Amino acid sequence: MAKPFGFVTKEMHAYLDYPVAAVLMVAPFVLGLGDSHPLAKWLSVGTGVAALLLTVLTDHKLGVVRVLPYPVHVFVDGVVGAVFLTAPFVLGFEGIDAWFYWANGAAVAFVVSMHKPEGVPSLT
Q1: Hey, CA dihedral for 9, 11, 13, 15, is it positive or negative?
Q2: Residue whose C-alpha is closest to residue 37's, from 90, 83, 107
Q3: Which of 8, 46, 105, 123 is geometrically suited to a Cys-Cys bond with 85, CB 3.0 to 4.6 A?
Q4: 124 lies in a domain?
Q5: Residue span of the structural domain in which 46 resides
Q6: How far is Cα 26 from Cα 76, in angstroms, rounded to an integer?
Q7: Are 70 and 59 contacting, i.e. CB atoms less than 8 angstroms apart?
Q8: Nearest to 84 by CA among 109, 121, 50
Q9: Could you tell me the pTM of the whole model?
Q10: Assigned domain for 68 exists
Q11: How far apart are CA 17 and CA 48, in angstroms?
């Protein structure tokens, strides 16, 4: 079934990737994540490093090497969203550790769900 509405274009997504990767690497230190479980800090940092590498390798406007098809990138983002939403339950994160992952997981899930398939005309 086709999505009735998707507004996050490939170009918009490309512009979001680098700042999101940076936030995932820096925010755990700024927010002091890791009180409920050490992985609360390092899951985000590792995901940020992986997100940076994924962005560099993706075939989109800001990709550097452009060997990874964009749909694969979007799929990986969806997996990250699901992992972030479930990590607090599975790993026992509490407090800000849990809320950080729930908020980021929800944001990623939203962006992925609002992805506009390539070749679909714009509403503007």
Answers
A1: negative
A2: 90
A3: 105
A4: no
A5: 10-113
A6: 21
A7: yes
A8: 109
A9: 0.88
A10: yes
A11: 10
